[in-house]
Design a protein that fits this description.
mainly beta; three-stranded antiparallel β-sheet; 1 helix; Jelly Rolls; five-stranded mixed β-sheet
Length: 116
Amino acid sequence: MQVVHEAEGEERALASDVDVADGILSKARGLIGRRSIPDGYALVFPFGRVATRRLHMVLVPFDVDALWLAGGEVRRTQRLAAWTGYGRGRADTVVELPGGAAAHVEVGDRVHVEGL
């Protein structure tokens, strides 16, 4: 499974080590309790429909890049700061990556999770 970014006719893997938070508890836990995440890692939160999705960084001691996707289109990107970051956006899928991993991803780009 991998997270792939599509822009300007090219595809680039954002992550090849992917976990999926597909249950209520795994979605609530997110990255809480981890000391770090490696380069090439993503945590994907799939939802059944587009709605406002919120993220927080309480008990997460490292920055993450968050992508809010709707139908595979990037609707919002945001760097969330360790411990205090908060973000929200409308999405059917949210992807969390190590801080800086999505610096080149822009609203309107396409991102998909292969194998999901």
